Amino acid sequence: MEREDVNELILQKVNEIDDDQVRNFVEDVLRFERAELDKQQPNYKNDFGDYLQRYIDDWENYESNN
Predict the structure, then answer these.
(1) Does residue 3 form part of some domain?
(2) How far is Cα 21 from Cα 27, in angstroms, rounded to an integer?
(3) Can you point out the beta strands (E) in the chain?
(4) How many independent structural domains does the chain possess?
(5) What is the dihedral of CA 14, 17, 19, 23, to 10 degrees?
(6) Cα dihedral across residues 27, 29, 32, 36: positive or negative
(7) Does residue 30 lie in a domain region?
(8) d(CA 21, CA 28)
(9) CA distances (Å), 40 to each of 18, 35, 37, 43, in order?
(10) Average pLDDT, rounded, for the chain
């Protein structure tokens, strides 16, 4: 994750997450949120819901295959 995109204190906490899938998910959410904050009127409720559903689907598929 780009250092200038997210506060260093947050990145330090994220880096402490042991589970790679969870850490990657949190990093992706932070990137998504950060990109939306730069917009004049962030309106991303549907986009965020779709984004989360993709992760849920991926996790469910992973769990059912293992």
Answers:
(1) no
(2) 10
(3) none
(4) 1
(5) -10
(6) negative
(7) yes
(8) 11
(9) 35, 11, 8, 9
(10) 79
Cα(19)–Cα(2) distance, rounded to whole angstroms? 20
Q: Which pLDDT belongs to residue 6? A: 76
- Angle at the Cα of 56 (from 51 to 62), degrees rounded to 5? 130
Q: Is the pTM of this model over 0.70?
A: no
Burial class (CB in 10 A: 0-12, 13-18, 19+), 34: middle
Local structure of 1: helix, strand or coil? coil
Taking a C-beta distance cutoff of 8 angstroms, is the pair 28, 58 a contact?
Answer: no
Q: Can you give the residue range of the structural domain that contains 28?
A: 8-65
The verdict on residue 2 lying in a domain is no
